[in-house]
Amino acid sequence: MELRHLRYFVAVVAEGHLTRAARRIGIAQPALTQQIKALEAELGIRLFDRAGRGIVATEAARAFAEEARAILARVDGAVQHARQVARGLAGRVRVGFTESASFHPLVTGSFHRFRARYPEVRLDLEEGDSTALAAGLAEGRVDAAFVRPPLPAAGTVRLDPLAAEAMVAALPVGHALAGRESLTLTDLAAETFILYPRAVRPGLADAVLAACEAEGFHPVVGQTTPQLSSTVNFVAAGIGVSIVPACMAEMRPKGVRYLPLVGPQPSAMLGIAWRRGEPAQAVRNFVATARAGRGALAAPPP
Amino acid sequence: MELRHLRYFVAVVAEGHLTRAARRIGIAQPALTQQIKALEAELGIRLFDRAGRGIVATEAARAFAEEARAILARVDGAVQHARQVARGLAGRVRVGFTESASFHPLVTGSFHRFRARYPEVRLDLEEGDSTALAAGLAEGRVDAAFVRPPLPAAGTVRLDPLAAEAMVAALPVGHALAGRESLTLTDLAAETFILYPRAVRPGLADAVLAACEAEGFHPVVGQTTPQLSSTVNFVAAGIGVSIVPACMAEMRPKGVRYLPLVGPQPSAMLGIAWRRGEPAQAVRNFVATARAGRGALAAPPP
DNA sequence: TAAAAATACTCCATAGGTATTTTAT
DNA sequence: ATAAAATACCTATGGAGTATTTTTA
Asked: Mean pLDDT over residues B282-299, rounded?
């Protein structure tokens, strides 16, 4: 059986008349008679009662016609949808992001703009550390990811920096320095730091450590925690101080004060990563949307 | 586009390999290449990335393949269902019945047996008087009907009697005759009758009137009501006596006593009606089921 | 008798086959 | 060097056309 049979059959049921149906389809009547007969033979059932003058659909034919119409409509729909997917106007994009990125306006802005422009594309969001996200990209579990560079080298994954974000000092409210307007990095040389393990957050941890080294001191790390949110909570508990991306200041638990850093300081890079030569248009559209946001917020407010 | 394209395409996506897919389908590889190319041309999108060695389905292809599989499955399902309908194992039968018939065990038994044997056939039930049901049959609104013969003559409607049912007298409990074991028709000659209009219930009304005439009296009709249930209620209210089909004794409101009739008496026929030459197998099956119940309960219990 | 469907036949478009080339691993 | 897909070309099945017959309202 072919779709042709269904198309012809539906036309015949609709017209209730072979000659008229043939005219509508645009073929000759005997050709239509043949195709209908072939369909009946394949189904092994009579579809029409021939009354010499005109034909009448059987009960089975009426049931089959209903399904046939639905099937033809579904074929149309599938074609439309496939075309949409090909143009990146439908489908799904799996986007990963690191914890700190989830607070960044470039990231949330990308989600908003993409959803507004491609409402038929589903965004499957997933939080993870940069290392896991890079692996996810390479293995095809993730299509695009907001990460903190650098990523573990992987030829297939491409990374585009979106912004260099200032970092701020996080101090317990009771701390001696907490009353100041701003700090330099060396002001913190004697403090106990709460940092994140290098294994999962190489980008941020290295930026902080390198900046301290450049100022001539090794920070004392009293505690490491994998989550930035718990880092801030440890600071609130008075266990130490930390340096976090400026956008983290959105998260403002009781007992923490954020102070801008002046002078030499670490900077947190934010980047978007995707597979080089990604064929899915929806993914390319997402990456383009994210990159289009660049510039706009490149420099954090002073 | 034809189902052939979908079948081939699904096979290629499943195998991820043109040569292997061609072998599975049972055609040569170049023929398959051509058909896939034709499909791509018709959809206007690339379905596979050619890497020289092997092919990879695009995002759009994966989306389309999912739909294609569903469509092919649905085609199969539609064929199966049409065959079931043709054999009367699926579909719908619209069955009408008169009020009195709905109490008759031949009728309820038919419904039970049919449902047990043809669980995939929906029974659409509809109550109506014999006149309306006969019209419904002729106009195709009803497929089969349990009625009280005779029906208004209509060449296309056939009727088969199922049972001759005894009728019983219905008296108010306080009535002088209500204490008797049984009655003859002439015992009721002086009573006021509650009957049903001849226009809607010609079968029952005529049977009662004719039997009375045969016994030499014209019954005094004090009240006519279109519903048998209200007839019985009027009897309960002491407004008169009536004669109803024995199966109506199932309906037993306070204040009514049913007495068997001995000697010459009316008899209520029960029949099944359907369109002569009905093509729908499910309807034929229903009528056959109803007729098969005949004999069994032909004579009402004494 | 007229209108509709079926039959008889003819034709050609195209699905599918074989042989071969191209391409990437 | 080899496996897979693409290309070139051929074949023949069957979809569709024209002419005609059959059937019944």
From this structure: 82
Quote the DSSP letter at residue A270: E
Do the Cβ atoms of A164 and A269 come closer than 8 Å? yes
Helix (H, G, I), strand (E, B) or coil at A164: strand
pLDDT in tens, B132-185: 899 899 888 999 999 988 887 667 889 999 999 899 999 999 999 998 999 999
Delimit the domains of chain A by residue range: 3-86, 91-162+269-291, 165-268
pLDDT in tens, A205-218: 888 999 999 999 99
CATH superfamily of B91-162+269-291: Periplasmic binding protein-like II (3.40.190.10)
Chain A residue with minimum CA distance to B92 = A59
How are beta strands B192-195 and B256-260 bridged, if at all?
unpaired
Give the residue from chain B lying closest to A64, CA to CA: B82
Closest residue to D18 measured CA to C1′: A28
Nearest to B86 among A45, A68, A81 (CB): A45
Phi, psi of B144 (to 5 degrees): -155, 150
Is there a common fold for B91-162+269-291 and B165-268?
A: yes
Going by CATH, does the domain composed of A3-86 fall within 1.10.10.10? Answer: yes
For B165-268, give the CATH class.
alpha beta
Q: Judge: B78–A71 Cβ closer than 8 Å, yes or no.
A: yes
CA distance A150 to A165: 14
Q: Write out the two tokens for B6.
A: 């979908």
pLDDT(B130) > 50: yes
pTM of the model: 0.80
Q: Which residues of B touch A48 (CB under 8 A)?
A: none
- Chain B residue numbers with beta carbons less than 8 Å from the beta carbon of A69 are none
**DSSP class of residue B301?**
P
